[in-house]
Amino acid sequence: MKKSQIKILSMATLIAISGMYACKPKNAGNAAAGDATKAYIAPGKYDEFYNFVSGGFSGQMSVYGLPSGRLFRVIPVFSVDPEKGYGYSEETKPMLNTSHGFVPWDDLHHVQLSKTAGEIDGKWVFGNANNTPRVARIDLTTFRTQEIIELPNSGGNHSSPFITENTEYVVAGTRFSVPPDDANGDVPINTYKQNFKGTLSFISVAKEDGKMDLAFQIQCPGVNFDLSRAGKGVSHGWFFFSCYNTEQASTLLEVNASQRDKDFIMAVNWKKAEEYLKAGKGKKQSVKYAHNVYSDATHSATSQIKTEVTVLDSKELQDICYFIPCPKSPHGCDVDPTGQYIVGSGKLAALIPVFSYDKILKAIADKAYDGEFEGIPVIKYEAALYGEVKKPGLGPLHTEFDGKGNAYTSFFVSSEVVKWNIKDLKVLDRAATFYSVGHLCIPGGDSKTPNAKYLIAYNKITKDRYLPTGPELSQSAQLYDISGDKMQMILDFPTIGEPHYAQACAADIIKPKSLKIFKIAENNHAFVAKGEKETKVVREGNKVHVYMTAIRSHITPDNIEGVKMGDEVYFHVTNLEQDWDVPHGFAVKGANNAELLIMPGETQTLKWTPDRVGIMPMYCTDFCSALHQEMQGYVRVSPAGSSVPISFSTGKTETPPATK
Amino acid sequence: MKPSGITTWVRLILALCGALLIVVLFVPMWRIDLDAPQYPEGLRLLIHPHKIAGDVDIINGLNHYIGMKTMHTADFFEFTILPYIISIFALLFFVVAVINKRKIMNILLFVFIAFGVVAMIDFWKWEYDYGHNLDPNAAIIVPGMAYQPPLIGFKQLLNFGAYSIPDIGGWIFMSVGMLLLLCVIFEFRKQRSL
User: Fold this and answer.
1) What kind and span of H or E run contains A407?
2) Residue A65, pLDDT above cutoff 60
3) Which of B41, B43, B58 is best to mutate for the A interface (most A CBs within 10 A)?
């Protein structure tokens, strides 16, 4: 080969290689765009929206401000939180009681703000537990978990806590079908088809105080229930659940539950179910589930084990349940603001089917069925279908709405958000997310009138976005400005745990109702000390009750003697402050549980079992004042059988008589 | 002989003053606003004819750092007599309006002003007492520092700015005094021009 030929050849090779590099897909570094000042909230200014984000495997729910992405609070729900003493204080331990005993962790997937007439009313936010099936209600005056109800006949609660338009019901659908609780569950796993059942739970919510009650359950064929949404407006009275594993596999679901071309969305006529319930068609079933309620009057939770539930059989009772075929293991089944359109998202599909509520009703009236599945009519796909969004992306998961006739769907596999028009089913815009997006959130995005200024995409993978922190990385939220025709990413912020679903609403709905203090005069805790004069130490056998108070900057009593080895000491600490933003903490050396954080006017109890003779310090853990470091005291622990009497004081300085 | 009576519309004003004084019984007379970095929303001490109100507990809680005595309505005997004094003044205004004697109106002016002066001196004395008689074992002792709030106006007390100003009752009280003074002057001039 001539020299010039070699030159040409190597040049060509170089061009080819560089051309290949130029074709390499764009990465996060060069794809981020948008005007970050739109997400900027100047110091001293409030955010426009509250954003409630599920913590996934953290079992908690976090509260952010939007558009700034500032984290304000992490609310412990299903997981213990030593920081706040949640699940450690005697008062909060019953909140995590279940029929399995104390379960200190769960997997919180979805959040739902309570609604009135299809609009967010700012009273409560609900969360679901995907492991040991439960639903929690968080009060939005205190931002605390107020109630947790366990669900019988269920094996993991995923399609939850979705609510009806007036918060009549919070629903829960079992992700894992299992044999019913009153059946003999000791059966071969491969008898899924015969023995396993799916259960949908309808939890009623009292209008005034939000008290939950397991109103009824619907027993369904054994499948996996994934997500759900209530009908609204025209479709109020119906609920839609996505189902997968209609193959009814009990092993290697990743292959065996992906065989059928179409799985189902199940339409549930819950008004009809109510009629059957009234007519006494439900069967009382003996079960066991915990119902835990926290009282702000006694500052304590109580746990009750309930033993009965009314079950409606979907096979026997006609007209409650209908299946609608939906491509490829659907995840989201989201209802648009008018209630007319139901968007199915088959997570392995390359199209989005949109079903029409009117067509579903007509198909039922015309009996346009494609046979039955386990005794439940299957509506013909075309009979229920409004239309399909063609080539939107790969792996649609979840859809939110802007109230202007557009839908936004997340695509896990192709890592993008796609905006499309509901009427003509045309794709309007697409924006990349980084990476592997799950759910989306538009403030009020599932209400009748969304506030479509922003959209947040919750992503799984951040490996080239954030500073690395070893093998485990933060997951992310990406905020888009959707006020214009094109989506524009304006902020990217890390999240707590794994954010599945989130909801947001205008701050004005919640902010004015936020509680500042608990009134000490209304404190009905059994061990409250409403002033330093009421402090005391009382021995009852080997239990020692310390009625303690905390106020800037001392605890009373701060010198305690007469505690002996073998005692169980209960520090009942009342925060006497009546001023906002003045919590006190309490900790004692060697405590095997946690600390307490006590809000103004509240009483909380830490149980402490001394493990050695000596002087044990205790102190306030929350930097309450200029003299916070002085807010401390001592407990003297004497040997078992010692004759040191119970004594307690604060500010007493004379030398006591010597004791052995 | 010069007439000893009062012009009708002046008598109506006097009656109005009597009515206004009754209003004073139900509203705060004075207020001290406190402002600190930790309290951007501000703290307010309200002095009614019969009680102290506002953020009393919070202010008491804060004052323990500097060793100031805690304030309680029951500690001030003034609160037991002030409502009666104001009621009596209201009554006197009605009486003067009805009996129509200029001389008595002049005496009322004198007594009213005298009361105002005594009340302010009393207020100042309490402020002095609370600001100076501090617990020697207090956590925060700044040599030479006293915490007497201003009688009226603004003063910086460590991290707190204190604004002492009349509240609605105080303004009414002063307006009543001013109206009474104007009535007396008007009647005096009218008398001379006769």
Assistant:
1) strand A406-411
2) yes
3) B58
Using DSSP's 3-state secondary structure scheme, residue B171 falls into helix
**B61/A626 touch (CB, cutoff 8 Å), yes or no:** no
A27-41, A90-104, A117-131: segment of lowest average pLDDT:
A27-41
Contact A572, A603 (CB under 8 A): yes
Tokens linked to A145: 């978990």
d(CA A138, CA A354): 33
Partner A contacted by B58 (CB < 8 A):
yes
The CATH class that applies to domain A55-513 reads mainly beta
Answer whether B61 touches A (CB < 8 Å): yes
User: Which DSSP letter does residue A195 get?
Assistant: H
Report the C-alpha dihedral over residues B183, B186, B191, B192, rounded to 10 degrees.
140
| pLDDT given at position A419 | 98
Beta strands in chain B (DSSP E): 30-36, 39-47, 52-54, 153-157, 160-166
Neighbours of A460 (CB within 10 A): 18
To the nearest whole Å, the CA of A599 is away from the closest chain B CA by 15
Looking at the partner chain, which of A552, A626, A630 has a beta carbon nearest the beta carbon of B61? Answer: A552
Q: What is the pLDDT of residue A29?
A: 46
Q: What is the pLDDT of residue A512?
A: 97
Dmax over Cα atoms in chain B, in whole Å? 72
Q: Do B139 and A626 touch (CB under 8 A)?
A: yes
d(CA A291, CA A548): 30
pLDDT of residue B2: 57
Q: What is the pLDDT of residues B88-112, one digit of tens each?
A: 999 999 999 999 999 999 999 999 9
Cα→Cα distances A332→A221, A288, A427, A485, A519, Å: 20, 31, 18, 24, 44
| Residue A31: pLDDT over 50 | no
How far apart CA A512 and CA A515 sit, in angstroms, is 9
d(CA B173, CA A525) in angstroms, rounded, equals 47
| Closest alpha carbon within chain A to B138 | A627
Angle between helices B102-132 and B78-99 (to 10 degrees): 170
Q: What's the whole-number average pLDDT of chain A?
A: 93
CA distances from A417 to A478, A496, B99 (A): 11, 22, 87
B172 CA to centre of own chain = 10
Q: Where are the domains of chain A?
A: 55-513, 520-649
Residues of A within 8 A of B139 (CB-CB) are 553, 626-627, 630
Tokens matching residue B45? 């001490």
Nearest CA in chain A to B40: A44
Q: How many CB pairs under 8 A join A and B?
A: 18
A286, A421, A510 from A387: Cα distances, Å:
44, 12, 38
B74 touches chain A (CB under 8 A): no
- ipTM value: 0.76
Q: Which residues of A touch B65 (CB under 8 A)?
A: 625-627
* Helix (H) or strand (E) segment spanning residue A201: strand A197-205
Q: Three-state DSSP class for B123?
A: helix
Which residues neighbour B189 within 8 Å (Cβ) at sequence distance 6 or greater? none
Question: CB B58 to CB A578 under 8 A?
Answer: yes
Q: Which residues of A touch B61 (CB under 8 A)?
A: 551-552, 577, 579
B84 touches chain A (CB under 8 A): no
Which of A579, A626, A630 is closest, CB to CB, to B61? A579
Indicate the class that CATH gives domain A520-649.
Answer: mainly beta
Residue among A579, A626, A630 minimizing CB distance to B58: A579
CB–CB contact B65 A578 (8 Å): no
Q: Does B158 touch chain A (CB under 8 A)?
A: no
Question: If you measure CA to CA, which chain A residue comes closest to B41?
Answer: A580
